[in-house]
């Protein structure tokens, strides 16, 4: 894992040097937008609506619109605001863990001890475990002040950013205010149904079936030779895949099939026959969807 931030946890006179790592990662298969006709890569340009010119990212400022008025914020304006100068994660308070609403939990990070002795780190971890408390902390990351919950997961301290109170919507549904009568028998039957589904939660037993099927489909098309050269249509190396946008699977398949049909010569071998078979199957899938 790559360190994204270094700093220190502070509470009272205790200082705990730590390294911060992202605790999660995205495993979705990256897909690109391409031209259905020839498989060419679709690119987006930043165009000014006033002069029509294509604008480089370095020449772009930010703006805020309110009641028909636009306020432009230059790079100098934003640089003058409080930024990520502090390298401290300040403990604001320790609260009962059950008081932290799961709805407010956001991005999780692992904290690793960053000193010759992890004693202060272990002390804080054991204290949180023993008192069943969660530390509410405040810190600055990427020029944004953030609120977070500091808790224990196994032997590691986890820092999980929290949504601010005004970022969580209230559930205001009139139907929830209706007086609904539930009989004792209905409640017993419902509880019995829940009991029949009861189990210990094992996250590893659940998989993203769509991503697995997508990967299987891609591998099958590669094995059948139903591909085209990246540089020929994208004008770039394959290593640039992460810059693409995730798109609908059927759109990617249509583009791939169209490109293959245009470039393919007459079938002369079993491989060519296999290509033709693979190409014909994709459109039938689209109709079924």
Task: Outline the structure in words.
- It is a single chain.
- The chain is of the alpha+beta class.
- The chain is built from seven helices and nine strands.
- A seven-stranded mixed β-barrel has the order 1-2-6-9-8-7-5. A two-stranded antiparallel ribbon has the order 3-4.
- Strand 1 and strand 2 (14-22) form a beta hairpin.
Summarize the structure in short.
The chain is α+β, with helices and mostly antiparallel strands.
Q: What's the arrangement of secondary structure elements?
A:
Layout: E1 5-11, E2 14-22, E3 62-66, E4 69-73, H1 75-79, E5 88-96, E6 105-113, H2 119-131, E7 133-141, E8 144-153, E9 156-162, H3 184-196, H4 209-223, H5 230-233, H6 249-263, H7 270-288
Parallel strand pairs: 1-5
Antiparallel strand pairs: 1-2, 2-6, 3-4, 5-7, 6-9, 7-8, 8-9
Helix pairs in contact: 6-7
Proportion of beta-strand residues: 15-25%
Give the strand order, joined by hyphens, for the main sheet. 1-2-6-9-8-7-5
| Alpha plus pi helix count | 7
Please tally the β strands and state the result. Answer: 9
Shape: extended
Report the C-alpha radius of gyration, rounded.
27 Å
| Terminal residue distance | 39 Å
> Which runs of at least 5 residues are low in confidence (pLDDT < 50)?
237-250, 268-289
Helix and strand element order: EEEEHEEHEEEHHHHH
Estimated helix fraction: 25-40%
Q: Could you tell me the mean pLDDT?
A: 80
**Main beta sheet:** 7 strands, mixed, barrel
Structural class: alpha+beta
Oligomer status: single chain
């Amino acid at each position: 894992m790559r360190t994204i931030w270094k700093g220190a946890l502070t509470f009272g006179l205790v200082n705990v040097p730590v390294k911060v790592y992202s605790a999660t990662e995205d495993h979705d298969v990256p897909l690109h937008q391409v031209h259905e006709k020839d498989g060419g890569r679709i690119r987006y340009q930043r165009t000014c609506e006033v002069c029509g010119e294509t604008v480089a990212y370095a020449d772009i400022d930010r703006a805020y619109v309110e009641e028909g008025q636009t306020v432009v914020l230059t790079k100098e304006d934003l640089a003058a605001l409080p930024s990520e100068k502090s390298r401290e994660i300040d403990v604001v308070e320790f609260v009962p863990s059950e008081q932290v609403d799961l709805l407010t939990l956001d991005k999780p990070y692992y904290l690793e001890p960053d000193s010759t002795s992890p004693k202060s780190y272990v002390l804080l971890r054991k204290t949180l475990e023993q008192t069943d408390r969660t530390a509410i902390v405040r810190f600055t990351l990427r020029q944004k002040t953030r609120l977070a919950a500091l808790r224990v997961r196994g032997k590691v301290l986890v820092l999980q950013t929290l949504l601010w109170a005004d970022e969580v919507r209230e559930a205001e549904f009139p139907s929830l205010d209706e007086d609904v009568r539930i009989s004792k028998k209905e409640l017993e039957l419902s509880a019995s149904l829940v009991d029949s589904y009861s189990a210990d939660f094992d996250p590893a037993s659940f998989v993203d079936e769509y991503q697995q099927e997508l990967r299987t489909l891609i591998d099958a098309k590669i094995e059948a030779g139903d591909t085209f050269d990246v540089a020929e249509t994208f004008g770039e190396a394959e290593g640039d895949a992460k810059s693409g946008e995730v798109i609908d699977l059927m759109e990617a398949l249509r583009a791939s099939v169209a490109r293959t049909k245009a470039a393919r010569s007459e079938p002369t071998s079993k491989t060519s026959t296999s290509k033709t078979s693979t190409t014909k199957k994709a459109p039938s899938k689209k109709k079924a969807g």
